[in-house]
Amino acid sequence: MPNRDFDIVLWGATGATGRRAAHHLARRCGESGLRLAIGGRNRQKLEDVRTNLPGADGKIGILVGDSLDPASMQDVAAKARVVVSTVGPFALYGSNLVEACAQNGTHYCDLTAEPQWMRAMIDAHDKRARETGARIVHSCGHDSIPSDLGVQFLQEAAAERYGVPCNRIATRVTRMKGGFSGGTAASFLNAMRLRDTDPDFSALSLDPYALCPEDERDGPDGPDRMMPIQITWDADLKAWTKPYFMGPMNSKVVRRTNAIMAYPYGRDFRYEETGLTRGGIGGWFSAMGSTLFGRLFLIAMANPATRGFLKRKVLPKSGEGPSKEVRESGSYEIVLVGEVPDGNILKARITGKGDPGVRSTTMMLTEAALCLAEDADKIAVAGGFWTPASAMGALLRDRITTHAGMSFELIDSQ
Ligand SMILES: NC(=O)c1ccc[n+]([C@@H]2O[C@H](COP(=O)([O-])OP(=O)(O)OC[C@H]3O[C@@H](n4cnc5c(N)ncnc54)[C@H](OP(=O)(O)O)[C@@H]3O)[C@@H](O)[C@H]2O)c1
User: Which residues form the signal peptide (predicted)?
Assistant: First the structure.
């Protein structure tokens, strides 16, 4: 890669996640001597953010541009070795930057959880990214790093212990404490709009293999339903499942990892991701309550009148997010249960400190950007569109356990 002005450019440093990411990145780049710039569309806001950053004594650059202006995105991509973006909804604002990174051979990561946009970006720019060597990695936040790296972790353990991968893994979200930001609300609202206006959107959302390469969109899993009507009993964990909004999205990423890595989990690999309550009648009522609440929320979001009310009065606006107290007291836990072909079961637990929607997400994103910048020579894959596990795998897992308050451990296997 020719000389660039900056090792990392954080694009969107003034938003709810961007401000947190700027803080974490400034500290980490200060430690390692990487050249950092923060970018966005408003110079004054960027100056204000920079003033409060650790190590801001003239070392952190500022880039001003507009995501909707292709020329300014070319300028950003040409100046950086790695671009990390929080400017979303990505389907509205992200395309010019991804194109510019693919063209300039600039590594890139972001926080998108919008499969239809990821599909469009892969189709449009994968070929160019392969030619230029740009490693493009979407979904480097809470969606989908814990799921993607968690499955890879459990599969490595299965291979080590049994010599074969699990042909079935269920990921259960067992704890989720925190809030969400204005950008997440905007992305959800945009998805609701697309559901009403784009005939391909629902088909792609339901397709479990929508993010797999063209000839590989086939396998044993059924449709990804965001809000299944039935709740199910998890016999491995002896508790009732409940819907998990991000399950369909994370599942698509896990299946893409398997497909683009030439099926290390096997072609018959089945995957699902839901929430989990507990056993007994209390667990059933809790699961049913969550299902009903989720359905009512979706119905309210589908109706223009109630959607308008929620947008104005309830949902956070751009730049807003959970309070410092919520961010710091938040946490989450997911449990993965895998089964190898002879019936042996393995379980893993993944935990994160800090609220998943902003604090933990921004630390994971930051570490992904640092991994692309600092571990460039250790990353095994070349240019192209990758997932967190396929591009960075154990390198990123080590980083987020050391620097982002996360843990990966095997639990009571039989
Ligand atoms: N995957 C996950 O787990 C996860 C978690 C959290 C968030 N997210 C996603 O991350 C994204 C950001 O969320 P957020 O809450 O931080 O959003 P936000 O607070 O609305 O921030 C958006 C940022 O984009 C900037 N921006 C908007 N339009 C721009 C343009 N035309 N040119 C340049 N910059 C522009 C804003 O700049 P101004 O300050 O000048 O307005 C701001 O810095 C969303 O897409 C959200 O869905 C994902």
Answer: none
Cα 369 to ligand 1 centre (Å): 17
Q: Tell me the CA–centroid distance for residue 47 and ligand 1, in Å.
A: 17
Ligand 1 pocket, residue 18 CB under 6 Å:
yes
* Å from CA of 92 to ligand 1 middle: 11
Q: Using a 6 Å cutoff on CB, does residue 360 contact ligand 1?
A: no
The mean pLDDT value of the chain amounts to 94
Q: Are residues 214 and 244 in the same domain?
A: yes
Lookup: tokens for 123: 């189709």
**Residue 250, SS3?**
helix
Q: What are phi and psi of 144, to 5 degrees?
A: -135, 25
Give yes or no for a contact between 114 and 91, defined as CB atoms under 8 angstroms apart: yes
Q: Hey, whose CA ends up nearest to atom 15 of ligand 1?
A: 183
What is the CATH number for 58? 3.40.50.720
Joined tokens for residue 95 = 């395309």
Q: Looking at the structure, tell me whether residues 296 and 394 fall in a common domain.
A: no
Q: Are 255 and 212 in contact (CB under 8 A)?
A: yes
Asked whether residue 414 is assigned to any structural domain, the reply reads: no
Q: Give residue 90 CA to ligand 1 midpoint distance, Å.
A: 8
Kindly report, residue by residue over 2-35, the tens digit of the pLDDT: 689 999 999 999 999 999 999 999 999 999 999 9
Residue 234 domain flag = yes
192 & 111 share domain: no
Q: How far apart are CA 370 and CA 118, in angstroms?
A: 22
Q: Which domain holds residue 283?
A: 145-355
Q: Atom 45 (ligand 1): residue with closest C-alpha?
A: 88
Per-residue pLDDT tens digits for 49-104: 999 998 766 789 999 999 999 999 999 999 999 999 999 999 999 999 999 999 99
